[in-house]
Amino acid sequence: MLNINDYVEMTKEDFIKLADEKELCPSNFGLNEIVNCANGEEVDTCHNCWECALENIEFFNPMIAFKNNSVTILDDLRIMEKQYQQLDEGRKNLKNKLMVLMEQYGIDKFENENISVTYVKGSTGTTFDSSKFKKENPELHALYQTPSVRAASIRFKVK
C-alpha cells in the first residue's frame, strides 16, 4: 500500500494528475472511495472520488510558500518604491526649476565636470494612431504585424 504522506510535498492538482497517469485510486493509499466509484472508467468520477478522499489531506500550497519566503523582499520592495517615488518627485521638481532658470537666462547647454544639461525646446509632432488604424483596416494591419519577445517581468503597486 502507498503512503499519501510521501506525496504531500506536491500540490493537490499535481498529485491528482500523477494519480491519473498511474491510474491510482484512493484505495491504493488506504483512503476511502466514493460509493459509486467507476474504478477509473470515468475521469470526472475519478476526480470527484479523489477530491472526497483528499479533503482532509494538506498538500503543498505554492501561494503560502511564496508568501512565507517573500515577506522580507516584498516589504523591502514596498519601502524602496516609496523612496523611489519621493526621489522621482524631487528629481522632477529640480529638473523643472533648472528648466525655468535655463529659459530665464537663455541657456541651451550647460556642462561641468559632474553634469551635462541640454535644454530641449518644446515642439509639436505627429503620431500614428495604430489602434484606430487596426480598427478601420484590420486586414492591412495584420500584414504588418511582427512578433516581439518581451522579457519576463513583474508589476507591482504599493498601497
In short:
The protein has 159 residues and is mainly α. The chain has helices spanning 12-21, 43-53, 62-105, 130-136, 138-143, and strands at residues 109-111, 116-118.
Give the SSE map.
Elements: H1 12-21, H2 43-53, H3 62-105, E1 109-111, E2 116-118, H4 130-136, H5 138-143
Antiparallel strand pairs: 1-2
Describe this protein's structure:
It is a single chain. This protein is mainly alpha-helical and 159 residues long. Among the domains are: 4-53, no CATH class; 62-122. It has helices at residues 12-21, 43-53, 62-105, 130-136, 138-143; strands at 109-111, 116-118. Strands 1-2 form a two-stranded antiparallel sheet. The chain is elongated. The mean pLDDT is 89.
